[in-house]
Amino acid sequence: MTLGDAYELFHADKGTAWEEIELIRRKLIQQYHPDKVAALGPKLRELAEVEGKRINIAFALLRKDRGL
């Protein structure tokens, strides 16, 4: 994942306030939280797990880019 991909995932750019990126991350993580997808079957649970990891990787890239 590139830095550009990370910003795109959060619908943000370098000028977006950090607080807004954090809020977007929380909303995305909530969508893919294991408790929310538990009843959807194993394939969707696996997809949600992969997407959650992708969100966390993107967030870490943005933190590193901003020196946080």
Largest sheet: none
> What is the rounded distance between the termini?
19 Å
Helix content range of the residues, please? over 70%
For the secondary structure, the number of strands is 0
Listing every helix as H and every strand as E from the N terminus to the C terminus, the arrangement reads: HHHH
- How large a portion of the residues is in β-strands, by DSSP E? under 5%
Q: What is the approximate shape?
A: elongated
Mean pLDDT: 90
How many helices? The count is 4
Structural class: mainly alpha
Low-pLDDT ranges:
none
- Global Rg: 13 Å
Give a quick rundown of the structure.
The chain has 68 residues and is an all-alpha fold.
What does this structure look like?
- There is one protein chain.
- The chain is elongated and about 40 Å long.
- The protein has 4 helices and no strands.
- With 68 residues, the protein is mainly α.
Walk me through the topology.
Elements: H1 3-9, H2 18-31, H3 34-37, H4 42-65
Highlighted features:
68 residues; mainly alpha; 4 helices; elongated; 0% strand
